[in-house]
Amino acid sequence: MSVGPKVTAKVSMESLFRIFTVPEAPDSTLGRIEQHLSENLEDFLSSHIVAQERPLYEIEQDFGLSQIPEQPEFVSDHTEKLLQTLVAQSVHTASPRFIGHMTSALPYFLLPLAKLMVGLNQNLVKIETSKAFTPLERQVLGMMHHLVYGENDAFYQRWMHNADHSLGAFCSGGTVANITALWVARNNLLAPSDSFAGVAAEGLPAGLSYYGYSRLVVLVSERGHYSLSKAADVLGIGRKNIVAVPTDENNRIQIDALRDIAREVTESGGRVMAIVGIAGTTETGHIDPLDEMAAIAQSFEAHFHVDAAWGGATLMSDTHRALLRGIELADSVTIDAHKQMYVPMGAGMVLFKDPALVNAIEHHAEYVIRRGSKDLGSHTMEGSRPGMAMLVYSALHVMGRKGYELLINTSIEKAKFFADLIDRQADFEVVTQPELCLLTYRYIPASLKRRLRAASPEQIAQVTPSLNVLTKYIQKTQRENGRSFVSRTKLTPAQYHREPTLVFRSVLANPLTTEAMLRDIIEEQRDIAEGAPGLLQRVMDAATEAGL
Amino acid sequence: MSVGPKVTAKVSMESLFRIFTVPEAPDSTLGRIEQHLSENLEDFLSSHIVAQERPLYEIEQDFGLSQIPEQPEFVSDHTEKLLQTLVAQSVHTASPRFIGHMTSALPYFLLPLAKLMVGLNQNLVKIETSKAFTPLERQVLGMMHHLVYGENDAFYQRWMHNADHSLGAFCSGGTVANITALWVARNNLLAPSDSFAGVAAEGLPAGLSYYGYSRLVVLVSERGHYSLSKAADVLGIGRKNIVAVPTDENNRIQIDALRDIAREVTESGGRVMAIVGIAGTTETGHIDPLDEMAAIAQSFEAHFHVDAAWGGATLMSDTHRALLRGIELADSVTIDAHKQMYVPMGAGMVLFKDPALVNAIEHHAEYVIRRGSKDLGSHTMEGSRPGMAMLVYSALHVMGRKGYELLINTSIEKAKFFADLIDRQADFEVVTQPELCLLTYRYIPASLKRRLRAASPEQIAQVTPSLNVLTKYIQKTQRENGRSFVSRTKLTPAQYHREPTLVFRSVLANPLTTEAMLRDIIEEQRDIAEGAPGLLQRVMDAATEAGL
C-alpha cells in the first residue's frame, strides 16, 4: 500500500503538530491507513490458522537494531513493515484451533471500544485524570464482588463508592492481583499495635520479631500458580515458605494434609499467614474444596485467598457455580477478566470480602491520592493505570450474565465432548478429566493403552520417559505445522503412581471451536505420531523391557 | 444513533457466535458503530476543553447498580450510553489546556495501531502466545538500554535476544518498574551462598540474619516518588527504611547529607541496599546530581537506581541530555513511555546495566517460561501482559529520535517562556524554575510579592496559611470552570524557609499548548483570585498582623 507521495519524512515542528492533531476522518491518510489495518487484522483473525512457523532466530533478525532510528518514518511505510514483520509473525490466539492456552477469542465489539479507551488515555490512579472512569471501575469491582459474595443492596450502597474503602483492586493481571492479596494478608497479620508501627512501616524482620513468629507460611496445593511463589519472593516471605500441599487423584488439595501441615507450621513456631484455594488450576482446571479450606483457614486464623483467575467466571453460570461453593467465605478472590471473561489482555482484579481490608496497604501523597479523595491509586499496587475496567463494563453489559452463562456452559460441554472423543480412541487417553473446560490427555500406542493402566509403579517408571519424548515431539510438531495448537505440561498423575508425565493441555474456551476441529486436532496428532516410527519403537522397546 | 431494528437483545448461541465472528466491515452494524465512535472521540479530543464539571456524586448515580445485568444489550444502545455517561464525563487529558499532569496528548497514528494491538491479543508472558512480539519487546528494551547506556553493537548482539538474560523488563507502569528494580537490588544483595539459599527462597528475615544486617535502607531525596515507599512496604523492607535525604534550594538531593546518612546507617549495623536518584521529580521536575550519587553508591556498594520515569525521554535531546549525566552509571533505570514518550497509558520499563542482574528474580514453571526458553515472563513481576511494547516501537520509528528531540526541546522552551511570563506579572511568582518542562508557581497579591521574599521566617509562617487557602481555591475553581487545568502540590521552598507552601504545578509537554493559552490560564487565575475578595483580604490581614 502506498499513501501519498514518497518523499523522505522530515522532522519539523509542523509535521509533529500534524501527528498530534485530530485527523479529518475518514478520507484522510490516517483514515485510509486505519481501513487498511482493519482489513488486514480481519484477514488475519479470520484465517483460522495458528501462526505460520518461522524460526525465532529468523524473526529476531527483523528486530536486531539496538539504536533508536534517528529519522522519522511515514506512518504508511511503518504500518506496511509492521504488517509484514510483526502481524504476520504473531500468534492467532483467537483462532478456534488454538486450544492450548487461556488466551482466546475476543468479541469484536470490544475492538472499537478499546480504541476509544486508548484514545481517551485516562489515568485511573486519580480522579483528576479519570473522572467518570473512577466510579465506573468501582462499579465493575462492585459487580464482581456481588458475583462472588452476593451482599445486599445496602452493603453496596454503603461501600461501592466509599472514599476510604475498596471492594477490590483492578490490576494489570492475576499475578499482581495475587501479590496484592497476599500483601494485604501480610500487612493485616502484622498490623500496627500500641508499641509497633506495623510491618508496612517497620519491615518484615521487625514484624516477625514483634509478633514472635519464626516465619510466615502460605499453604497452597502443589497445583498452585507460579505467581504465588513469586509473591512470596517479592513480599520477603521466601519461596520456601510457600508450602505445596499434596493433591488427591483429582488434583484437589488434600484437606487432611492441609490441616496437618498447618498444625506442624504452628507447632514449630511459624505462622500460617494465608491458605490459598484454587478455582481452576492452570494445569488441569480443577477446583479445590473451598468450603472445607475456609473452615481450616478460620481455625488457624489465616487469611483465605482464592485464586479464581481463570475459573472465577464460572460463577456466572447457574448450572456450574456450585463447583466453587465456599468461595464466598474467602477474604480475597482473584479473577482475570482477560481469561474466561473474554476481555483483552491486561484486566485482572482482586476482590476483598471486607471493604476495610485494603486499609492495610493504603498510601497517600501530596499531589495525588490525598487522604479522603476517591482516587483509586490509594489502594492499588500499581500507580498510573489505563481504563481497562471500561472493557469489562462493556463486556458485562453487552453479553449480560446470561450470555456469559451460555458461553461457560457451552465450553464445559465441549470439553466433556472432547474428553469422550479422546477416550473412545484406541490410541489416546485422557489424563485429567475436565471439571471446567480444561483437560489433559496424551497419545499412547493402542497396544499399550490398557496394559499401562494395570502396570506396576516400576513398569510405569520404565515406560514413561519414552512416552514423554513422544508427547513432546507431537506437541512441538503440531505447533510447527501451524494448523492448530495445544500446549503441554508435566503432571504427576495418581493413576500412574505420580510418575512425572508429559501431557497435552487443552482449553476449550473459544466459542468458535467446533467438534469437527477437535476431531481434526486428534487426527493430526495421530498422524504425527505414526510419522515417527523411531519414537514409537522406543516406547514399545521400553514396554518390552519392562515386561509389558 | 440507532442501528438496526429495536428489538430486545436475546441470549442465544447464535447471537454469541455473531459477536465473536469477524464483522463484514465497513458497512456492517459494527462498522457503523465504529465510525460513530471515532467521530465522537474526535469531537471530544478536538474540543480543547477540560472535562465539563459535574459533581462526582451525580456521576456515581450512573454507576450505582451492583448486579451484573442479566440480559444482554445491543452494542449500539450500549455505545450510546457509554458516550453519554462515560466519554462526556471523562477528562480531556489530551487538551492543550490540560497542563496539570504528566498525561498528555497522543499522536493519532497510535490509535489504529492500538486497536490492532488489542485485536491481536498477544500475551507477552511466553513465546507461544506472542511469537514476534517477544523479539520486538526485546528490541524496544535494547533501544532504550542503548539510549541510557550506549554500549557497543557487540554488546547488543550478544544480549538483546539472549534467553537467560534481559536488558530490562517491560511493565504496566513506573511503579511496577521501581518495585522490580528494588526487588532485583534486594535479591542481589542477599544472594545465595554456600550455606544460604538466598532471600528469594528463604525470605527477608533469614536474609538479614544470615548477612548480619540490622535493616536494609534505601536512600532517596525527599522529592522521591511515593512508589518508592510502596516498594519498601511490598518488599518487606518497611517504609521507615526509605530514608528521605534533604534537598538543596533547587530540589536536588544534598550530596553531603546523602553521604552522612549512608555512613550513619552503615555504622549502626544497617545496610544501604540502594540509592535512588531522580531524573525529573514528580513535583518540581528537577534532576539529582546523578554522577555524584553514583560515586557514593559505589563507595557503599549499594545498588544505584535512577527513577527517570518522567525525565528519561530527555536523553533523546542532544541539547538537554547532559542534564542527566551519570545516568549511565546506574545499575537500573525506570522510564515510562506513557509519560514524555507520548505512548498510551500502560507502558513502563526498567532497564538493567548488567544483563545478568535479572537472574536474581528469575522464575520458571512447567507449562510456561520453562528454563532456557525465551519467554519474557521469566524476568518480570507481572505474568500475562499485553503487547504494549509495539506502541513504543511504532512511536520510536514514526517520530524518530530527532522527532522526540524536537518535542523535548520545544517543551522545555515553552516551560521557560511560561516561567518568564509568570515572573513578569506583578501578582504571580514562580516557586520552582523549570529544569525540564515542569514548573510550579502561585498567585500572590502584587503588594505582597516583593515584601514576602524579604520577610523573616516568622512572618512567612504567619502569612503562608492564608496564601495556601487562596492557592487551593484558585486551583479548584479553575478545574471546576472546566476551561483549563493545572494541578497543585505542597512544597517546602528554600526561599520561604521551608514553610509548607501550596503551589500550582504545570507540565508543558503537550505540543499543541500555545503561548496564548498560557496567557489565558494566567488571566483566568487572576480573575478567580480577584473574584474572591474575602480570601484576598485574609491574606492582607495576615500580612498586616505579621508586620509586613
TrEMBL record, chains A, B:
Cofactor(s) the protein needs: pyridoxal 5'-phosphate
InterPro entries: Asp_decarboxylase_pyridox, PyrdxlP-dep_de-COase, PyrdxlP-dep_Trfase, PyrdxlP-dep_Trfase_major, PyrdxlP-dep_Trfase_small
Keyword hit for Lyase: yes
Molecular functions per Gene Ontology: carboxy-lyase activity; pyridoxal phosphate binding
Gene Ontology biological process terms in this record: carboxylic acid metabolic process
Gene3D superfamilies: Aspartate Aminotransferase, domain 1, Type I PLP-dependent aspartate aminotransferase-like (Major domain)
Positions carrying N6-(pyridoxal phosphate)lysine: K339
One of the record's GO cellular component terms: cytoplasm
Keywords: Decarboxylase, Lyase, Pyridoxal phosphate
SUPFAM superfamilies tied to this protein: PLP-dependent transferases
Family listed: Belongs to the group II decarboxylase family.
Name of the protein in its database record: Putative pyridoxal-dependent aspartate 1-decarboxylase
